[in-house]
Specification:
Low-confidence stretches: none
Strand content: under 5%
Number of domains: 1
Order of helices and strands: HHHHHHHHHH
Oligomer: single chain
Mean pLDDT: 90
Largest sheet: none
Radius of gyration: 17 Å
Structural class: mainly alpha
Distance between the termini: 52 Å
Length: 207
């Protein structure tokens, strides 16, 4: 049982459990009295919070959506910041990042269902590769304003993070970009239904 008290194992469990907290679902339920798992896209992310809550309380919808983004990003970043303060290795930090995103996308509290990982990915990337992430965030904001399609702007922003990290040679200090690619793959994979709708021209705009 000693492995349960291993420094890395404890952080990995903490990262996955923190990532699993469905803040969007909780906020919408507590403050708007709606279950976003039963409405809209049924995702627990900020876009679905905005879309579903807006139907009954437009003035509250944007506030809850912003709060969801912040909390989903924070839950990924906080474990990393604690681990960094305790001098965790780069490989441990990247494993924490991957598990945080996995927790959000496959939450233990939602029978391994969850969100699409964008905000949680933003949080962990911001801590580990801040400059490429800021570039990606700018792209996300610009594309979001122009295209008004949340999924597409999110994927373009994510692509911007990955490309910027490669071009700037923003090293991950683990000898490989694999952890970054794994996080990107998880987020792309969770967006497959959106990608299919985009190809068909059926993806909804955020108004």
């Amino acid at each position: 049982m000693d492995f349960l008290f291993n420094f890395n194992i404890l952080f990995y469990l903490f990262a996955y459990l923190a990532g699993s907290i469905p803040f969007g679902l909780l906020l919408a339920n507590i403050f708007a009295g709606v279950n976003i798992k039963e409405s809209g896209s049924r995702s627990i992310g900020a876009t679905n919070v905005l879309r579903v809550v807006k139907e009954t309380n437009p003035s509250l919808a944007k506030k809850l959506s912003i709060a969801t983004v912040i909390l989903d990003a924070f839950k990924g970043a906080i474990v990393l910041l604690i681990a960094m303060a305790m001098d965790a290795s780069a490989s441990t930090l990247w494993a924490i990042a991957v598990l945080s995103v996995l927790g959000h996308c496959y939450s233990v509290f939602l029978s391994l269902e969850g969100g699409k990982g964008v905000a949680t990915g933003l949080g962990v990337f911001l801590v580990l590769i801040p400059i490429p992430t800021l570039i990606g965030a700018i792209l996300w904001f610009v594309f979001g304003k122009i295209l008004k399609i949340s999924s597409l702007s999110s994927l373009l922003g994510l692509t911007g993070v990955v490309i910027a990290a490669i071009i700037l040679n923003n090293g991950l200090d683990v000898g490989s970009n694999a952890p970054m690619y794994i996080i990107a793959f998880i987020i792309y994979y969770k967006h497959l239904p959106n990608i299919i709708r985009l190809i068909k021209g059926e993806e909804k705009r955020v108004i």
